[in-house]
Write the structure tokens for this entry.
Amino acid sequence: MIDVTVSFKRYSFLGLEFLTWLWWATEEDPEQIAKAAGEPAVLYVGNRIVLEKRQREDVERVTIKGDAAQMDEGVLALKKGAQVKDVNLVMEIGDQKWTFNLNGETMAFSTLKTPPTAPVRVVDEMEGAIIEKAALLEKPINVIHNIFSHFIKIRISEGWREELLKVRKWITEFQS
């Protein structure tokens, strides 16, 4: 049996590859994302993305922040061999909108903001409000789980090489 820390180090690259692929897919193949999500979800990169390139002991990190941020620097980092380490994502389903950060190494969610819920006016409404909020919190976790499962199926398939060529082409031909 493999020790958890050994396994974490051995396979943490998958999350980085996933976020890099996800950025590409949200830009170039949103239909694939919606289909994989299991929901009529629209997913796109929000106002923050962190890219990292590791070479032995050296780590080169590029962080792009801001609502009007240009992704040129991020794609330049990809061209130099960086991968997406952390990303702010926006998910829309119908008229509902979620924003959250997703870490590539741990696949941990942070700063998850759900769509607004109705205010609780009386104590009897509290249980329903809690259930509604829990369902709203669970939605992006399930969507990312479904998309990650889809990614892993591609990653271990014969089609990965073709998918990787599409991602590389997007990187080399990127224009803002």
